[in-house]
Amino acid sequence: MIKGKNYYEILNVTPDSSINEIKASFRKLARKYHPDLNPDGALLFKEISEAYETLSNTAKRNQYDIINGFFKSEKQTTSDKNNSHFDNSFKKENFTKKKTDNSYDKREFSKKINEIFDEFKKNSSKKYSKDSEKVTPICGTDIYADILINISESVKGTSRTVNIVHSELCPLCRGRKFINGAKCSSCSGKGEISQYRKLTVKIPKGVKNGTKLRIPDEGNAGKFGGKNGDLYLNIKIENSSRMKYEGLNVLYNLPLTPFEAVLGTEITIPAFEGDVLLKIPPKTNSGQKFRLSGQGLAEKEKIGDMIITVHIEIPSSLSDDEIKLYEKLKKLSRSNIRENLFNE
After folding, report:
1. Are the C-beta atoms of residues 143 and 218 closer than 8 Å to each other?
2. In what order do the strands lie in the sheet with 289-292?
3. 231, 177 Cβ separation under 8 angstroms
4. How many alpha carbons lie under 13 Å from residue 23 in its C-beta half-sphere?
5. Which of the four pLDDT bands, split at 50, 70 and 90, describes residue 117?
6. Cα dihedral value 86, 88, 92, 96, nearest 10
7. Nearest-CA neighbor of 308 among 234, 243, 260?
8. Nearest to 232 by CA among 208, 249, 216
9. Which pairing describes strands 249-256 and 306-312: parallel, antiparallel, or unpaired?
10. Distance between CA atoms of residues 278 and 266, nearest Å
11. Which residue from 19, 123, 241, 306 has the fewest beta carbons nearer than 10 Å?
């Protein structure tokens, strides 16, 4: 008990206030300045508790009033006088307490303070539950990421494991940011944490460049009961010298050997709905195009085509026998394919 501190002023009561009024005022101030609810109120909460410990105990309050010169007004009711056991002829020896009495006072105060805070917690939980009903849910934001695949994977379909960074509510403070008046050690007062998550995503066959795959609820976490955001994967197809896309059509460059172009052949072409057989007629020229209807990309009710352009290519390695055959072919040839070079 410190002389000079005005405990009545700290608790916003007067010397005429009853025990019930003091208890009600303390409960109100405790709600406002408790460190769990007000990180800046720790020192004031300590003073409030100190004042309540004195004024809620009849003997301590009487002693405090004598030491600090506080006297009740003449309007004090009879019941208050009886409860206080106080008059102007109060003897100093009445304040002398044994150690056993002090221990009893501390136990009584501890019991009272616990009862008050139990009630305070119940009222707070009800208040927060009501307040939470009024809070507007906030949906989490979406996350966007790119996935690179090759032509073959786009034709046949594939799967990819992606590592996504997204935000989640801090599991320690549950978004409150402060614990016991200090910043949450887990999220450093942000209320949320960044989390890495690996997801295996199935990429369907027939996807085209720029297709966006939506993975529901794998975006950033919502707040106040709001729905999680979504994850959007942007499909990017690697460039290929043999194949590219033009709208829903697939453009394919097909190499032919000289003897395949001259004699004709049948070639298996990988397509979206399975392999198809392309028949190359004899005497096919380099640059000649073939169209495979309905073998392109599909979009809603539309389906593109596969347009194949053949190119005659010489193998990079030829055997001696092959070279001898080309020499024999040269001697047998009588046509001049450059005869009308400047007239066409």
Report:
1. yes
2. 243-246, 249-256, 306-312, 289-292
3. no
4. 15
5. low
6. 0
7. 243
8. 216
9. parallel
10. 6
11. 241
DSSP 51-119: HHHHHTSHHHHHHHHHHHT----TT--HHHHHHHT--TT--GGGG---HHHHHHHHHHHHHHHHHHHHH
β-strands 178-179, 143-149: how paired? unpaired
pLDDT digits (tens, 9 = 90+) for 302-332: 888 999 999 999 988 889 999 999 899 888 8
Distance CA 266, CA 280 (A): 6
How far from chain centre, in Å, is Cα 272? 37
- What the block records as the tokens of 96 is 């002398």
> Is 257 within 8 Å of 315 (Cβ atoms)?
yes
**Alpha-helical regions (H) of the chain:** 7-10, 19-33, 42-55, 58-68, 78-84, 99-134, 151-156, 258-263, 320-332
Separation CA 40–CA 52 (nearest Å): 20
